[in-house]
Design goal:
Elements (H helix, E strand, L loop, with lengths): L1 E2 L4 E4 L7 H6 L4 E4 L12 H10 L3 E4 L9 H13 L4 E4 L4 H10 L6 H10 L5 H8 L12 E8 L3 H13 L5 E4 L4 E3 L4 H5 L9 E3 L9 E3 L3 E5 L4 E4 L4 E9 L4 E2 L7 H4 L5 E2 L7 H10 L3 E7 L9 H15 L6 E7 L11 H10 L3 E4 L1 E7 L4 E6 L7 E6 L2 E3 L4 E2 L2 H4 L25 E3 L12 H19 L6 E2 L4 E8 L2 E7 L21 H17 L12 E2 L4
Parallel strand pairs: 2-5, 3-4, 3-5, 6-7, 6-13, 7-10, 13-24, 15-22, 16-17, 16-22, 17-18
Antiparallel strand pairs: 1-2, 8-9, 11-12, 12-13, 14-23, 19-20, 20-21, 25-28, 26-27
Helix pairs in contact: 3-4, 7-14
Protein name: Bifunctional protein tyrosine phosphatase family protein/NAD(P)/FAD-dependent oxidoreductase
Pfam families: BLH_phosphatase, Pyr_redox_2
Organism: Roseibium sediminicola
């Protein structure tokens, strides 16, 4: 928590368990400026509000999309400053949005120099905001203070750090910057294993600073907007970063609010999700405690991050109940908004064997639209082919929810996006279709591949190879074949290793005698449990392209 003055302090994301200390330090009000669902480890505002009320603190929700602070938002923040008991603690992802809102709210109340001095004392550079105020609210123009880099990478996740390392491995003299406000980097493929009691959550997290490649500049900020015609990225706080070439890979957004009532009950009432760092351990707790009743596992409409993850959670849970002689007392229902169990038909027979083994009822075209945690009821919209849409209400004792997923807000409204909101790229070269010096990879781009970490592992060398070729004045030399991998954990100790590319073409990495991906094997489990995590941390993120060398574009 950083004090701007005696009335207002700002902070990065807080958690419900922090509220007791916040109250002890004398704060009387909380303002949340971070929209729910922005981060994978983020508690929703209702959790913060409930904890605040228990301690007698006022709590208000004024969510601001990163970089989209309007004059009205500043007025609303100023109104809260006037009405709420003080001192006030405002928070967002890093504190920058809250500091920006305060600065703009004071534009007509304090001299600009005083605003700048107070925010600087709290550790926030609001020079861009002051320029905005001085310019009458207009977007700031380029100044001598604007940073410039050969390559700017938006996103410090698996895709961003991997492509930075792959670029440096090919051309070590590049000036590269990664823009990402997060303090922690997560190995998200491990959360399925956390929910199954195999991994500890803490083992899936490392500090961002420890993973940024040596020599790469880390700009710890959120992106507000893109100005591709000017080769510029506008940051939260209105700072400008210029680039020679841009790589866009911020991941996707988990839209928890799209399911009515979901945010009110996450992490309690038997409602869980392996799609959030702090909730995956609750999945395992529920699985261990459940002796009888009904367990629901949901899958929303595509696209989603790792389309196999919803049923991975189901299989590992069912396997535990099977091995503890409880399976016969538990009714397992898979509620899938789509019409098939898995999109690549070659893997369906092996998966169906486990569906039958665990006695799972498959409910296709069932999309979760509302949930009442205390009443333990879930509402699904059912849209079956050639039938009228209807809704059904289903009771549950435990429900694992896979949230609807979209491109991040700042991507959807940008000139980089296609009509659906995803970054518009050529699916082979991963170069933007309209802007020649922009590339994209990972979950945010619109190539028709599976959104998995394994896909990013193959995409990073392709992007790096093509950027270096472009710097040398040559056309693209590497191509991406749509590779994605989904290790389907059908039981503890066995995995169906689905590996495929564009159009569902099977793209196995190993000879069939070693790993037959169309059937469950212990070798694939060993790969998932023992080999892939160190490969992720020590190879993929460091530019060591083990089994990921890019395929060359044919001269023909």
């Amino acid at each position: 928590m950083k004090a701007i003055n005696t009335q207002i302090s700002v902070a990065p994301q807080i958690r419900p368990e922090d509220l007791a200390e916040i109250a002890q330090q004398g704060f009387r009000s909380i303002i949340c400026n971070r929209p729910d669902g922005e981060g994978a480890d983020q508690p929703v505002f209702e959790e913060i509000e409930a904890a605040a009320k228990k301690l007698g603190l006022e709590a208000r929700y004024l969510p601001i999309v990163a970089g989209k602070v309007s004059d009205q938002d500043a007025d609303d923040f100023g109104a809260l400053m006037d009405s709420l008991p003080k001192p006030i603690l405002a928070y967002c992802r890093t504190g920058t949005r809250s500091a920006t809102l305060w600065s703009l709210s004071q534009a007509e109340k304090q001299p600009l120099a005083d605003i700048l001095t107070q925010t600087k004392s709290a550790g926030y550079d609001m020079a861009g905001v002051v320029r905005r105020i001085a310019n009458g609210g207009r977007t700031p123009t380029e100044t001598a203070e604007d940073a410039r880099f050969d390559i700017v990478i938006v996103g410090g996740g698996a895709a961003g750090i991997s492509v930075a390392s792959s670029l440096l491995a090919r051309k070590s003299d590049l000036e590269i910057a990664i823009i990402d406000p997060a303090d922690v980097h997560y190995y998200q493929p491990g959360w399925t294993m956390v929910g199954g009691g195999i991994f500890e959550a803490a083992d899936t997290a490392k500090t961002m600073g420890s993973l940024i490649p040596k020599g790469v500049h880390w700009i710890k900020s959120a992106v507000a907007a893109f100005e591709p015609k000017d080769n510029a990225v506008i940051l939260d706080g209105c700072r400008v970063v210029k680039y020679g070439r841009l790589v866009v890979c911020p991941g996707l957004k988990l839209d928890w609010h799209k399911v009515d009532g979901l945010v009110d009950t996450l992490g309690k009432n038997g409602v869980t999700s392996n799609y959030r760092y702090d909730l995956a351990p609750y999945t395992w707790q529920l699985v261990q405690e459940m002796a009888h009743g009904k367990a629901l596992f949901t899958q929303p409409p595509m696209p989603i991050k790792c389309a196999g993850a919803p049923q991975k959670a189901m299989y590992l849970s069912a396997d535990h109940w099977f091995k503890t002689a409880r399976l016969g007392h538990i009714d397992i229902q898979f509620m899938n908004a789509g019409g098939v169990l898995f999109g690549v038909k070659d893997y369906v027979p092996a998966l169906m064997d486990y569906v039958k083994r665990y006695g799972v009822d498959l409910n296709f075209f069932h999309n979760l639209v509302a949930i009442d945690g205390p009443a333990k009821k879930a509402v699904f919209e059912v849209k079956e082919p050639e039938k009228d849409a209807r809704t059904v209400e289903v009771d549950f004792d435990m429900i694992h929810v896979t949230p609807p997923q979209t491109a991040p807000d700042f991507i959807r409204v940008s000139p980089l996006a296609d009509a659906a909101g995803w970054v518009d790229v050529d699916q082979t070269t991963l170069r933007h279709k309209s802007f020649d010096n922009i590339w994209s990879l990972g979950d945010v781009m619109n190539a028709p591949n599976a959104k998995t970490a394994a896909a990013a592992r193959k995409q990073a060398p392709v992007v790096a190879e093509n950027i270096v070729s472009d710097i040398g004045g040559h056309s693209a030399t590497a191509q991406y074949d749509g590779y994605g991998s989904c290790p389907l954990t059908v039981e503890r100790g066995k995995i169906v290793l689905a590996e495929f590319g564009y159009g569902g073409t099977l793209l196995p990495s190993f000879p069939r005698w070693l790993v037959d991906g169309t059937r469950p094997t212990r070798t694939a489990w060993l790969l998932k449990e023992r080999i892939l995590p160190p490969v992720y941390w020590r190879a993929m993120l460091r530019g060591k392209e083990w089994m990921a060398k890019p395929e060359k574009i044919s001269a023909a």
